[in-house]
């Protein structure tokens, strides 16, 4: 199974003790090294997370 942006958001939010903005979510995921699991090289990953998350 591919690790996608929804998986990224889910893992970050499950580890958080509070709600996060998309920017905070992205920063927390990068700090945990999750961005390397995505296999995406887009220039606006926060917008991609937002697009996937809101669908």
Automatic annotation (TrEMBL):
Known InterPro entries for this protein? Asxl_HARE-HTH
Task: Write out the GO biological process terms.
Answer: regulation of DNA-templated transcription
Q: Does the keyword Transcription apply?
A: yes
The HTH HARE-type domain sits at 3-55
Query: Which controlled-vocabulary keywords does the entry list?
Result: Transcription
Highest taxon, organism lineage = Bacteria
Q: Does this entry carry the keyword Transcription? A: yes
Name of the molecule in the record? HTH HARE-type domain-containing protein
Question: What is the species listed in this Swiss-Prot or TrEMBL entry?
Answer: Blautia pseudococcoides
């Amino acid at each position: 199974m591919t690790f996608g942006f929804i998986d990224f958001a889910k893992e970050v939010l499950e580890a958080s003790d509070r709600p996060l903005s998309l920017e905070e979510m992205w920063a927390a995921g990068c700090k945990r090294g999750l961005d390397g699991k995505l296999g995406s090289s887009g220039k606006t990953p926060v917008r991609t997370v937002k697009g996937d998350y809101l669908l």
